[in-house]
Amino acid sequence: MTSETRREHRLLMIAALASIFTALLLIAAKTVAWLMTGSVSLLASLVDSVMDSLASLINFFAIRYSLVPADEEHRFGHGKAEALAGLGQAIFIAGSSIFLIQQSAFKLMDPQPIEQNAVGVAVMVFSIALTFGLLLIQKFVVRETGSTAIEADSLHYLSDLSVNAGIILVLVVSQYGFLWLDGAMGLVIALFILYSAWSIAGESIQLLLDREIPGDVRDVIGAIVAEHSLALGFHDLRTRQSGRTQFIQLHVDMDQNLSLREAHDLAERIEQGIRQAYPAADVIIHQDPVAVGPSVPVAGPGNGDF
């Protein structure tokens, strides 16, 4: 294992532990605030934090498992553990949203005054500050490692900032007689959590189904192959992602008169170029011999060639 790989593993563990620690602190603070205020909006935020802690815990163990090197039974590594973790998170989150919808409906039908509003506002401000600090850590780790699990966790915490700001507004405005706002905000948060669960589940399922890597991968690889005059084209490009590892396979057309050494060296140079563009990629290049002559087309249309 290289020093760079060890550094990335260490960063992933730091981000996962920071997420768990943040969620536990928020659960403690919001529990006190909810008991003192009776606000269903705060209850919704509390349940959201409980789900965050479960999701972060799942993420922690999934990331640890995904970092285990490939073995005889898992030749492609253990990266899909992150996608399975995402699917588990989605199930937990969806369950919490159904509970919140029920509680919010009760609050809308029988609105009650919120007590100790100042305590609730203080806890929400504390939550925003703590969440913002965690986001800074997560964004740095995602930039350095490209982890899909940390990125998904980061997006969820980013949405929490706007939710917490909305709860502060409810706690302030409810003092002026708008008691229905508490139940309404709880319902909005519950629906938002349900939408988040749907998004996380969809992304996880696509990763498990080996969806193509999103983005302009074909254009990038085409430009890399075009840099080599001995490469006559490429086709049958296939990509997928498992955890942090991106698997890229393609066929490169080469003059059939090249020696085995020349063809191998050309494939090596193309592979190095792809790895520079996608550092976490596992690249496989198949070398296709092509008869070069005036009657033989070099690059067939519709195959991704240039």
From TrEMBL:
Keyword Zinc applies: yes
Recorded family membership: Belongs to the cation diffusion facilitator (CDF) transporter (TC 2.A.4) family. FieF subfamily.
Domain Cation efflux protein cytoplasmic, residue spans: 214-289
UniProt cross-references to InterPro entries, sorted A to Z: Cation_efflux, Cation_efflux_CTD, Cation_efflux_CTD_sf, Cation_efflux_TM, Cation_efflux_TMD_sf, CDF_Transporter
This protein's name: Cation efflux family protein
Keywords: Cell membrane, Ion transport, Iron, Iron transport, Membrane, Transmembrane, Transmembrane helix, Transport, Zinc, Zinc transport
Organism: Alcanivorax jadensis T9
Transmembrane stretches, start-end: 12-36, 42-63, 84-106, 118-137, 157-178, 184-201
PANTHER family: CATION-EFFLUX PUMP FIEF, MITOCHONDRIAL METAL TRANSPORTER 1-RELATED
